[in-house]
Write a structure and sequence with these properties.
This protein is of the alpha/beta class and 236 residues long. It has a domain at 1-78 and 187-236: Rossmann fold (3-Layer(aba) Sandwich). 39% of the residues lie in helices and 26% in strands. The chain is built from 10 helices and 10 strands. The strands form 2 sheets. A 6-stranded mixed β-sheet has the order 6-7-8-3-9-10, sandwiched between helices. A 4-stranded antiparallel β-sheet has the order 2-1-4-5, covered by helices on one side. Helix 3 packs parallel to helix 6. The radius of gyration is 17 Å and the shape is globular.
Length: 236
């Protein structure tokens, strides 16, 4: 298993945000983590990427225990997050933002190849490579966020709410690109409020409620689960 989270709890001060959650991601999969606002989805991502320390439990990545490993060293090992809210460098150009994604690398030929890969996935970024990131549209900034994460050559790409704030047409485009990234060999853990789109593309999924995993199954199983349909897909 590429990523294995075992009985992880996490605190914000005295508030317990995660209550002993366990989940796994196999190499080559898209795994979706769905849930309502405040369920703990982004907190789970922060625990995996090392932004927030866990109170208890264990996180293993590619066979190694990374529970106490620094966030930057997790990136070096191949674990990279495209954060919620985009978080680009607004004063840098598109190209400079993408180059920042490769800051841990020294293989110039590989970086150049991955830059062309990103421009192939996101032709709009190629057109705007010299444009300052802060002047891009919301959809273009989301593309830039994902592209920057890909420049680190992740073994596991963490996508946190990639469709947030986007128009329906752009949402469809972003999810199609996510499927393409996966088909090119990148494993993906996807946190997403758009449960319909996420589960339709996921090999497996988990449902998180108030910091606890309450359901798991294949994407298809969860799409057709009556409780999931009522709570997250708007189907009574």
């Amino acid at each position: 298993m590429l990523l294995e989270i075992s009985d992880v709890s996490l605190l914000y001060g005295r508030i317990q945000a995660l209550h002993g959650i366990s989940l796994g991601v196999d190499e080559g999969e898209i795994v979706a983590l769905i849930g309502a606002n405040g369920a703990g989805k982004s907190t789970t991502m922060r625990a995996i990427s090392g932004i927030r320390p866990v109170a208890s439990g264990r996180i293993r990545f590619n066979g190694d225990d990374i529970t106490k490993l620094r966030a930057d060293l997790r990136v070096v090992r191949g674990l990279c997050q495209a954060p919620e809210g985009r978080g680009i460098f607004p004063g840098m150009t598109v190209l400079e933002n993408l180059e920042m994604g490769a800051y841990t690398r020294r293989d110039r030929a590989g970086i150049a190849a991955d830059l062309e890969r990103v421009f192939g996935l996101f032709p709009r970024l190629a057109e705007r490579r010299k444009q300052v990131g802060g002047t891009l549209s919301g959809g273009e900034q989301q593309m830039l966020t994902i592209g920057r994460a890909l420049m680190s050559q992740p073994k596991l790409l963490l996508l946190d709410e990639p469709s947030m704030g986007l128009a329906p047409m752009l949402i469809q485009q972003i999810f199609s690109i996510i499927s393409e990234i996966n088909s090119q060999g990148t494993t993906i853990l996807l946190v997403e409020q758009n449960a319909q789109q996420a589960l339709a593309r996921a090999d497996r999924g988990y449902v998180l409620e108030t910091g606890r995993i309450v359901k798991s199954g294949t994407g298809t199983e969860l799409l057709h689960d009556p409780a999931v349909k009522e709570a997250y897909l708007g189907v009574a």
